[in-house]
Amino acid sequence: MAFEQQYSICFLLVLLPLPFFTIAQSYKNISLSSSITAQEDSDPHWASPSGEFAFGFRKIGNAGFLLAIWFENIQEKTIVWSANRNNPVQQGSSVEFSAEGELSLTDIGTGKRTNIADGQSRDTGVAYAAMLDTGNFVLATRNSTYLWQSFDHPTDTILPTQTLNLNSSLFAQLTATNYSEGRFKFVLDSGGNLTLYTMNYAFKSTNFPYLKVQTGSGFQVIFNQSGSIYLIAQNGSMLGDPVLEDLVSTQDVYQRATLDYDGVLRHYKHPKNTDSAWSSYSYIPPNICTAIQEYTGGGACGFNSLCKQEDSAHTNCSCPPSYIHVDQDDERKGCKQNFVPQSCDKASSETDLFELKELKLTDWPGGDYEYFQNVSKEQCKQSCLADCFCAIAYFNEINSACWKKGIPLVNGRIDEDVKGLAQVKIRKGQAKEKGSLTLLIIGGVIIIISTSLVVFIITHLVSSHAKVSRLNPGVQGMNLKCFTFMELKEATNGFKEELGRGAFATVFKGVLASDTGKYIAVKRLNAVVKEHDLEFKAEVSAIGGTNHRNLVQLLGFCNEGQHQLLVYEYMSNGSLATFLFGEPRPNWNTRKKIALGTARGLLYLHEECSNQIIHCDIKPQNILLDDSFTARIADFGVCKLLKSDQTRTATRIRGTKGYVAPEWFKSMPVTVKVDVYSYGMVLLEIVCCRKNYEPEAPAEDEIILADWAYDCYKQKKLHLLWQNVGDDQEMDGIEKLEKYLMIAFWCIQEDPSVRPTIKKVTQMLEGTVEVTVPPNLSSLYVQYK
């Protein structure tokens, strides 16, 4: 199949099925005058005969309720259609199939009544409604003629037996948790062209076609039951090769094709009768980051951002150094500079205040405003430093060419095919510049922060309502909100609902009335003593300057006398400890996702944020899970920040028994490898679904997980661990179990120099680096004495 812009995908040969489907459907009649009301603690619905699909209300986080169709028999309850995706309704709202045959939605909050089914009424002969086993909701006559069906009004998903007709389209949802129409569209237009577009969000007009599957003569898009999605002409003949294909049987798996919020159209499958996750092996375009190179618009991830295609199911949007996301809840809104930009009035005198950060395999194609040939890298750099309009100097050593780019940067991507060198201009105070200081007023305290380490705190008499303030105009402060104690007391209903408790602090659930009811987690330090001052100082300084999808976001703080509190975003699925060690056991695909997400979070702390951070207390209790079970590293209270020229540090023992690296006990200088060790212990727990120390284990040799797992590995008895995991139907081979164990054994080597970096660990998990046989392990019994 030939795509524009040199896209090509190889597909298996398939027999051409009939373009129209004649599938017998059983159904449960939904009689006239039936209704459903949205309820907080349930998903009221009308089910299909098999129970595989449901039509009714689904609660979407704090946004409200969608009137939707979803897969009912799987854990994720994946939504495939909704009537009100742009306007969720409140609890108590209702859908009514009236005596006149109208299907209408009433929003109790506004009193607005919306006719869902295009004004169908008794006059047109509607006799009943039905949720079919195909995932299609219909209004039908007495002789079962469909007068209206959800299949004719798709949102972001099509299902087997469903067709897309001329002028039909799929709209991607806005974010992973916001189901509103978003930034990408898949359409079969009136000219017969099947095209993927970026959208001028939020005006819903098309902007840039980043993939054309067929030009002209297309009549329908067909999704057959064998897993093939293809285009046909008006005479029913198949046009070209399938658009997507993954030959499967609907008897064994559920299927769907979804235009995801990242702009990729993916064919998903989910084994029936298991708790495994959706998987995708067929998708277009092959690389969304390089596919989008638009003249107007911010590319795949927004202005000033960087897009990286991680795998078939994940596209990562990140910011350049010293840039932060415009909206933490929507990474595709792009990034902004987190420093005071260069003044054009004083550009020549401010040159020494800025530097260029080199980024390999990185580019922002387009948006160049100046171009030089036959220049050196240093000349390219100096030209940018002296130019207040220059944000990026892109240098190509092959032809000694230099491009200068200004804000906003467009079409950013990280890709192996990028040959040049991008140099990002940032203020020196934002980099690892030795000797730079930032002064912040927090509550009644001045915190003086080095770019490498929090130096000290000086008491200062200022208003308790003071916001974070920059005393040094040359250095950007932390973008955190300063709360009063009474605000947080009210938000937590008097610190009523406890989420967790540690040695120095208790965490409470709260809700910010001033932020549309946004849930928060408030960490309250038990008392103000010197030790707690250090913890408070470390956590504010460390996490306040970080920004990554696998870290918990610090929203603000309170520091009023004896009241020291930290305010975080709320993680709805709790900690990995609760998730991992409870019943039923979490599925393998979700555990793999959590393992990789945790590694990526540590990689950011160790190598990608402006100040290298050693977390020092990686354990399941400090790994939290958001709505989609994405891993978020939390609790930076004992972390260490390293200076720019420092790779190791001497400090007292930190961390938790069972996860502490051996060098802590030997008074040796510690490095980032202590986090690698702790991660290895956590990885073993993720793989084996049990705690690293079980004194009540069935056998004495099973008490210490690492020793038992290593014995099973050496003796080729991995089936013993596999039985403990309980994932017989979803583990993709015992060799996968062995691979993850080997990675963990590398991480928990006694000698820190033998342990891999977290970057290499991440690459091994991703499959881009081979996992070799680890050295022998020493006994870990000393950890538990």
TrEMBL record:
Residues 1-24 form the signal peptide. It comes from the Eukaryota. It is an enzyme of class 2 (transferase). It is a single-pass type I membrane protein. Its EC number is 2.7.11.1. Gene3D superfamilies: Bulb-type lectin domain, Phosphorylase Kinase, domain 1, Transferase(Phosphotransferase) domain 1. It holds the Pfam family B_lectin. The keyword Hydrolase does not apply. Residues 33-152 form the Bulb-type lectin domain. ATP binds at residue 530. Residues 493-769 form the Protein kinase domain. It catalyses: L-threonyl-[protein] + ATP = O-phospho-L-threonyl-[protein] + ADP + H(+); L-seryl-[protein] + ATP = O-phospho-L-seryl-[protein] + ADP + H(+). Keywords: ATP-binding, Disulfide bond, EGF-like domain, Glycoprotein, Kinase, Lectin, Membrane, Nucleotide-binding, Receptor, Serine/threonine-protein kinase, Signal, Transferase, Transmembrane, Transmembrane helix. One of its GO terms (cellular component) is membrane. It is found in: Membrane. One of its GO terms (molecular function) is protein serine/threonine kinase activity. The chain crosses the membrane at residues 437-462. InterPro entries: Bulb-type_lectin_dom, Bulb-type_lectin_dom_sf, G-type_lectin_kinases/EP1-like, Kinase-like_dom_sf, Prot_kinase_dom, Protein_kinase_ATP_BS, Ser/Thr_kinase_AS, SRK-like_kinase. Belongs to the protein kinase superfamily. Ser/Thr protein kinase family. This is Receptor-like serine/threonine-protein kinase. It comes from Rosa chinensis.
